[in-house]
Design goal:
heterodimer, A: ABC transporter involved in vitamin B12 uptake, BtuC, two-stranded antiparallel ribbon, B: 588 residues, Rossmann fold, 3 domains, 6-stranded mixed beta sheet, 4-stranded antiparallel beta sheet
């Protein structure tokens, strides 16, 4: 391995890591606040990209308009899923005294395959091109990078900062944190938790859509995309601790990206997911109690 | 004929997957997206052994079965001690890893997989045509069905359902829930591996396309649509979903290349709609019910105690009942013969809150002790500490001289200290009888070995558990509700069933958390009389209670707690004489 190989992998790691950072932050925003096992994150990820492609072909909008249209569709999907499907299922489970986790998860899985297969039905499974910007490659010595990568890294960290500031400094943000930390208490002090759920689904879904558009610009749009993204978002959010702020999750995402990318110096590329899986496994085994609090809170609160 | 026979065989193969997944999802309440991945483990094991190493069919299948089970245990082990979210995450990760590794390992044939696994032959007989293979598959399918049925309907299955309904309450009854979950996960993974091995031998090839996420979702759809917790439903689900492919292609005439998309859209939409409108699936879960005139079941309840109208005969009947319940075979630590539970300097702080702050108390053997005091005094926290649900910061908790600190809740319960919960925590989707039966300790049917190889022992143990459970229900007057789902019982009735369930554990020390809140007057008197009599059958009781009339009746030794410390103790009368206390708490 040479110095420039290490440099190249570090650059790739920063790009991947920044993607994981935003995936983790957007995924955890939804999951930690609503406690929904939202596999259909994939549906919104996919929905934004194909809605933008549809708009490109059918609507007389400028390119930026197609992008905006895709993001709006993603937000709508997230909001409608929560308002008309998850909420009902959770209410029904609660009436029967059960845990809504698994029913919501199964419905979410169902929505995901509906979305994937509707896309496959309409556009077929061939990869399509969808580009956010006209891409261009640069090199610095032996290290290569693209305009898209630079844009992604800058934009992602800007969004992460904005998300952090929103949660920390705005009134609406502190309501979100309130619901996340203690939903019952939040309700008691007059926060409309339903509205907060809708809000986080909207934000999370727009971010999912944006990430989907970046992936399709880097590789191509295909119906099978999104599952990897959700998986990474999930792992990052879990390892960082779901209830943590976006910046801490972002740092963990960056580290996971760097580890995965640098592992390619020693391991064949196809083992990259195995590396992430190992991180997850080690973490689950050595799980610090502090991290478990998010999930155990529900139970410990009721046994005393 | 060849085509339709092929579809029938697929139905049998998928039934094997759906049945085993139902044990995991429907009974134990653990969602897994890795069921197809375990099929891949079995399929590739059989593929490598059959195609590359030319092993015989039965040898390859048996190894696939065992290896999938072992991997199932190893994969689930880190996640099963954690809440369900982690199990889903881990199975997702496992499915993902299997999918990406089978493609990248050359020995597994990469994208194309392995072909030519060798004949399906057993005891010298070859099964070649689909209709010949059908006979073999049906035989194996029926065995799997019966094995799953046996598991689901046994005490083992009852514990799994308990975990699904309320894992914490299951632990409180002395069940090592993680152990049960690991066994369930391992067994169902092994059966998925078996299904995988049969599948690849049937098609004479193993490839990555056979074990995609779509397959895993199809399996989940079979279980969910057929009915979670209902095994016949899983077979129904497998049949309906497998039949949908040829129906879409041949009846609706959808282009085969698009039929898969249509099919997946239908599954997906069905999953969503079922979760919204009929989460239990087409067939509802079965419940073990007593036949009204069944053996050993006496219809007439005993007249409640403490209402004056009992008479000598009723008293006699009571004595008999209590004597029956008193017999226990559990070995207890010797102790000093005076104190059941000794607590010294017990401390538990939650952050800045001093929930328990240096508590000393004794529960004398064969006596009733009460913990009283305002809300937030630390009474329920003490129960949590005694039974291992909350770990103490400092102090001594000894049961008959044996320290309980650092023990798991189920170990403490097995040893003889059991708690009930203020909010009952009954298993709502199980009958009262099933609830109480699940608490009976030492049932042979909780071991897979006995379940499949010592059926006579299991039958005897099951019969005795049922008799014990019925006796306990009679004690609290709930035997007439033995067959009622706990979700359908009134709150007061649930409280009584919860007492019966705690009694059924056979524990010597019973910690009852507000046993009569919400129970109507007549039954409250009855419960008081029953609790008063528990010392006669060797029980030590500690109750948290606010109802002074009830405590008066019990003539218990009372500990008055305030802000996490024992302020004073003595008989209720003595406590009432204390001016400050009377003002502060008794408000008289």
């Amino acid at each position: 391995m040479t110095g420039s190989e290490v440099m190249q992998q570090t650059v790739n790691g920063v790009v991947d890591g920044s993607t994981f950072a935003l995936l983790g932050a957007s995924y955890s925003l939804i999951t930690s606040v609503t406690k929904r096992f939202h596999v259909a994150y994939v549906a919104t990820y996919l929905g934004a990209v194909y809605a933008a492609i549809w708009s490109e072909d059918h609507l007389p909008l400028p390119h930026i308009g197609d992008i905006a249209f895709g993001l709006v569709v993603a937000a709508l999907m997230g909001v409608l899923i929560e308002a008309y499907i998850y909420r009902r299922i959770a209410a029904r489970a609660a009436r029967r005294g059960g845990d809504p986790l698994i029913p919501v998860f199964i419905a979410s899985l169902g929505l995901t395959i509906v979305a994937q297969n509707v896309v496959s039905w309409v556009w077929n499974t061939q990869p399509l091109s969808f580009n956010l910007i006209t891409n261009k490659g640069y090199s610095l010595g032996d290290v290569r990078y693209t305009k898209l990568q630079v844009l992604a890294v800058l934009l992602y960290w800007l969004i992460l900062l904005a998300l952090w500031a929103f949660l920390k400094w705005t009134k609406q943000g502190s309501r979100v944190t309130g619901v996340q930390v203690n939903p019952q208490m939040a309700q008691v002090v007059g926060i409309n938790t339903k509205r907060i759920f809708i809000l986080v689904f909207a934000i999370g879904s727009v971010l999912a859509g944006l990430l989907g558009m970046f992936e399709s610009s880097t590789v191509a749009a295909q119906p099978s995309m999104g599952f990897n993204a959700m998986f990474y978002g999930f792992v990052v959010a879990f390892v960082a601790g779901m209830e943590r702020g976006p910046l801490r999750i972002a740092v963990v995402g960056l580290i996971v990206g760097l580890i995965q990318s640098l592992s390619a110096l020693w391991l064949p590329l196809q083992y990259a997911p195995a590396v992430v899986f190992s991180i997850l496994l080690v973490y689950l085994i050595l799980l610090p109690t502090d991290f478990r609090r998010y999930f155990t809170r529900r139970t410990t609160a009721t046994i005393t | 004929m060849g085509l339709s026979m092929n579809i029938v065989n697929q139905m049998v193969l998928f039934s094997i997957f759906a049945l085993s997944l139902n044990i995991l999802m429907g009974f134990a309440g653990q969602a897994s997206i890795a069921h197809a991945a375990f099929g891949a483990v079995g399929g590739y094991t059989a593929g490598v052994l059959g195609a590359t190493h030319h092993w015989s069919f039965p040898a390859a299948v048996v190894v696939a079965f065992i290896l999938s089970g072992v991997i199932g245990v190893l994969v689930s082990l880190p996640a099963l001690r954690l809440p369900n979210e982690f199990v889903i995450l881990l199975t997702l990760a496992f499915a993902y890893i299997v999918a990406s590794t089978v493609i990248s390992i050359d020995a597994l044939g990469g994208q194309y997989g392995l072909q030519g696994l060798g004949d399906i032959s057993l005891f010298g007989k070859k099964f070649v045509s689909p209709s010949e293979v059908f006979i073999l598959l049906v035989v194996i399918g029926v065995i799997v069905f019966l094995a799953c049925w046996r598991l689901g309907e046994s005490s083992f299955g009852r514990v799994l359902k308990g975990i699904r309904e309320d894992e914490l309450a299951t632990k409180a009854l002395g069940k090592h829930t993680v152990g049960f979950k690991v066994v369930a996960f391992g067994t169902t993974s092994a059966v998925a591996g078996l299904g995988g091995a049969l599948f690849v031998f049937y098609y004479q090839q193993v490839s990555p396309q056979q074990w995609t996420l779509n397959q895993a979702i199809a399996m989940i759809a079979m279980v969910v649509l057929g009915g979670t917790g209902n095994l016949i439903g899983s077979v129904l689900g497998a049949v309906v979903i497998t039949a949908s492919t040829p129906i879409l292609e041949n009846v609706v005439h959808i282009n085969p290349s698009r039929a898969t998309f249509a099919q997946m859209i239908i599954y997906g939409a069905a999953l969503v709609l079922f979760m919204m409108y009929r989460p239990e699936g087409i067939l509802r879960e079965r419940h073990g019910r007593l036949r009204a005139a069944g053996k050993g079941y006496v219809e007439a309840s005993i007249t409640p105690l403490g209402v004056g109208n009992g008479g000598a005969e009723n008293q006699q009947e009571w004595k008999k009942l209590l004597d029956r319940v008193a017999t226990t075979t559990v070995q207890r630590p010797a102790g000093d013969g005076v104190t059941a539970l000794k607590v010294r300097g017990l401390v538990k702080h939650f952050g800045g809150i001093k929930a328990v702050n240096g508590v000393d108390l004794d529960l004398p053997l064969g006596k009733v002790t009460a913990l009283i005091g305002p809300n937030g005094a630390g009474k329920s926290t003490l129960f949590g500490l005694f039974t291992g649900f909350i770990s103490a910061d400092q102090g001594v908790i000894e049961y008959r001289g044996q320290s309980l600190r650092g023990m798991r809740p189920d170990q403490i319960a097995k040893l003889g200290v059991v708690r009930s919960f203020q909010d009952t925590r009954l298993f709502r989707q199980m009958t009262a009888l099933e609830n109480v039966m699940s608490a009976v300790p030492g049932q042979s049917g909780e071991s897979l070995l006995s379940l499949y190889f010592l059926p006579w022992k299991v039958r005897a143990s099951n019969r005795s558990a049922k008799a014990i459970a019925l006796d306990q229900l009679r004690i609290v007057g709930m035997d007439r509700h033995a067959n009622t789902l706990c979700a359908d019982l009134a709150h007061g009735e649930q409280k009584l069933v919860a007492i019966a369930r705690a009694l059924a554990t056979g524990a010597e020390v019973l910690l009852l958390d507000e046993p009569t809140s919400g129970v109507d007057e007549q039954w409250m008197h009855h419960v008081a009389e029953t609790i008063k009599r528990l010392p006669e059958i060797g029980k030590t009781v500690c109750i948290v209670e606010h109802n002074l009339a009830f405590l008066e009746r019990l003539q218990a030794n009372c500990y008055f707690l305030e802000s996490g410390s024992v302020r004073t103790h003595g008989s209720l009368r003595e406590l009432m004489e204390n001016e400050d206390l009377r003002k502060a708490y008794f408000a008289v």
